[in-house]
Design goal:
- The protein has 405 residues and is mostly beta strands.
- The protein has one helix and 29 strands.
- The longest helix has 4 residues.
- The N and C termini lie far apart (56 Å).
- The N terminus and C terminus are likely disordered.
Length: 405
């Protein structure tokens, strides 16, 4: 009996309002003010944008030419509910979803679900999409019809904190992590998104936490004391890191056999030294390993993935003082898209040219032909990614990728 998933209703935030996308005068296909529909972007801090989001972000391309924007709002419950009473709509938050036509920018419909976490989101699946909350997962068809649900918040999980879901690049698996309130242990569940079956359930001591999941169910795990290893949960046998580098962090999967990562300066917490980014295969083969120009960082670390492409946002810092240990002020410099097949950076969206100071969400369409973002003003913008590549010297192994202006 699908009690909870049928509670998903038309959102009350903007019910009855008709929103029309404003056609753009630049190369954006369209722009839509989602802040007017209830979306609230995270605040901006001195060291780049503050994006307190799990890897499953607030922006996602779905099948049938749709984009979904998700956010949470707080509601006042009519009565106090018991922790185990998760079938009632009295949970303190509402997960709102705006379903938008990816071609025209027209708002098609709005839905909402009760949840207990502001990290609740929606991720795509092969047969539709999945509503992800710490209480339940719910699989829906592309027509937003409930198909199946999986209860997550059993008594044991109810005592845990830091709910953090992460989808594999092709949205075949969902890895969910809870951290014990005592800060001594983590609990994991690996879920097949096509049928909401729990593939594996295990515990891990903090300091050796799992970092990423691939489309074939492989995971990575590592810590500052031990280099990252890859394998099936409980059987991490391979390492993509050099044997001499015990601090190697492999990054996150951007395909079934490739990992993208960002390495901070050698001195933790130092904002004035160079960061580097790398792309490597799971067997350790390096595709590229490049330092970012001084003053540049990549946030959020988790890239947007679409088919054989991924995108990252590069921020540039200005001002600040290394002597006085004052952080620079960061703003968006560019968004760059990498093509795994050709091993080239194929697209660069310049922030300054389009008035983009920061973004709170970034996504690529499943075929990698569209890039969507939400800017500092709460505008959802969609850009086509051309088939042509960037000029020679701006991408590929041995070059300074994405630095062309």
């Amino acid at each position: 009996m699908l009690v909870w998933v049928t509670f998903g209703t038309t959102s009350s935030l903007a019910r009855g309002r008709k929103e029309v996308a404003r056609l753009s005068t630049d190369d954006a296909l369209w722009k839509l003010d989602v802040r007017a529909l209830g979306y609230e972007a995270p605040a901006v801090r001195e060291w780049g944008p503050y994006v307190p989001l799990p890897p499953v972000g607030p922006l996602c391309f779905l099948a049938a030419g749709r984009i979904v924007v998700t956010f949470t709002t707080r509601t006042t419950p009519a009565a106090l509910s018991r922790r185990e009473d998760i079938d009632t709509p009295s949970l303190p938050l509402r997960l709102h979803a705006l379903f938008v036509d990816s071609k025209t920018g027209q708002l098609q419909t709005e839905q909402e679900w009760p949840t207990g976490s502001d990290r609740s989101r929606i991720t795509r699946a092969s047969s539709g999409f999945v509503v992800v909350t710490p209480e339940r997962l719910a699989l829906f068809s592309p027509e937003i019809m409930p198909l199946k649900e999986l209860v997550l918040s059993e008594r044991e999980e109810a005592e845990l904190a830091s709910f953090r879901p992460q989808a594999s690049p092709g949205a075949k698996f969902l890895l969910i992590r809870w951290e014990a309130r005592t800060g001594e242990q983590e609990l994991y569940k690996l879920v097949n998104l096509s049928d909401l079956q729990v593939v594996m359930y295990w515990r891990s001591n903090l300091g050796g936490h799992v970092g990423a999941v691939s489309d074939n169910g492989m995971v990575t795990a590592g810590s500052w004391e031990e280099a990252t290893k890859i394998g099936k949960p409980g059987n991490l046998t391979r390492s993509p890191c050099p044997s001499t580098d015990k601090h190697c962090l492999a990054g996150v999967f951007v395909s079934q056999d490739a990992l993208f990562g960002v390495a901070p300066p050698h001195a933790p917490g130092t904002l004035h030294q160079e960061f580097s980014m790398h792309l490597k295969r799971t067997d350790g083969t390096i595709i590229f390993d490049q330092e970012l120009p001084s003053g540049e960082v990549i946030e959020p670390i988790y890239p947007a993935v679409g088919g054989e492409r991924f995108a990252v946002a590069v921020y540039r810092g200005k001002g600040g003082s290394r002597l006085l240990d004052i952080a620079p002020h960061f703003s968006l410099d560019r968004i760059i898209v990498y093509d795994l097949t050709s091993q080239r950076w194929i697209y660069s969206l310049q922030g300054k040219n389009r008035g983009l100071k920061s973004i709170s969400a970034l996504a690529l369409s499943p075929d990698g032909s569209l890039l969507a973002l939400i800017d500092q003003e709460g505008r959802l913008e969609v850009y086509p990614i051309p088939a042509t590549t960037l000029p020679a010297g701006t991408g590929g192994p041995g070059s300074r990728p994405g630095f062309g202006r």
